[in-house]
Amino acid sequence: xxxxxxxNHPGFLSQLQDLGRFGQANLGLTTSGPAxxxxxxxxxxxxxxxxxxxxxxxxxxxxxxTALTDCCISITGAMCEVLINxxxxxxWRALQLQQxxxxxxxxxxxxxxxxxxxxxxxxxxxxxxxxxxxxxxxxGGFDGHALTAKRVLTCQSASTCVNQMLDISQQPHYDQDTxxxxxxxxxxxxxxxxxxxxxxxxxxxxxxxxxxxGYRLNGPRIESKVSQLYSEGISFGAVQIPPxxxxxxxxxxxxxxxxxxxxxxxxxxDCHKLxxxxxxxxxxxxxxxxxQAQNALHLHQYQLAHLKFNPC
Length: 312
Prior knowledge:
Blueprint: E1 2-9, E2 13-17, H1 37-46, E3 55-59, E4 61-67, E5 71-79, E6 82-84, E7 87-89, E8 94-97, E9 102-107, E10 110-118, E11 152-155, E12 164-166, E13 177-184, H2 193-201, E14 204-206, E15 214-218, E16 232-233, E17 238-240, E18 248-250, E19 257-258, E20 262-266, H3 268-274, E21 282-287, H4 290-305, E22 309-311
Parallel strand pairs: 13-21
Antiparallel strand pairs: 1-4, 1-11, 2-3, 3-10, 4-9, 5-8, 5-10, 6-7, 6-9, 12-22, 13-20, 14-15, 14-21, 15-18, 16-19, 17-18, 17-20
């Protein structure tokens, strides 16, 4: 273990995350983990870290750090300016920091969340088998809290930095209008056919109150035959329709149970895209089958297994 970075400015909302806390929903503990899983995994692989090594997820960026030792980092995710000692740096690549260097991560220009990884992985407070931060429950991360100024970030010791970059053809683009693929759930029949048609044939806009718990969408009111059900377990990507008729896509920090009717579940890959969308962005839903969802996930797993890193 070594002291790695001093936090000059923590940014708008920065949290320590690993891949998430699994198998604890029966205790009322949600998964948490990175909102954009692909960017998180790439940041670790650029540094030859395990996929689960903890990173800092910065929502909207705007952070500054001082290097307390020589270390290797990577920054992926949302488009933002990256400076080392006022010199511009590329994202999606490994970067070397020398002791005393000033790292600045600007505010996100496209997308919402960027990821700061360090060789060896950051260290935090593990809770229930994970260092993922859940602020609502005050567990994981830094004693359950977001990153604050004047904190010293520690990391595991790691090997020498490898200068490599993710091939530009594999770097994602953060479009502000997107299609969300959705699989119908067993409560689909609680919605009249006219309401289902309205749901799939109209655009919705991302609400400013969207966060890691759920993305609220504004659009035509969707009516169901019932407004309330007995509470039951809720999956990642479930689309709840509350009494106001405005859909909510449940995300990483969702509650573990809920009683609003659910029209279906958004494909997890598209939830990751949704997490990078700013308020006012437009989304449209597209129905897919379970087989199509499985094929999309298999293709994504193949792409993850065949990432192309170029020397730089």
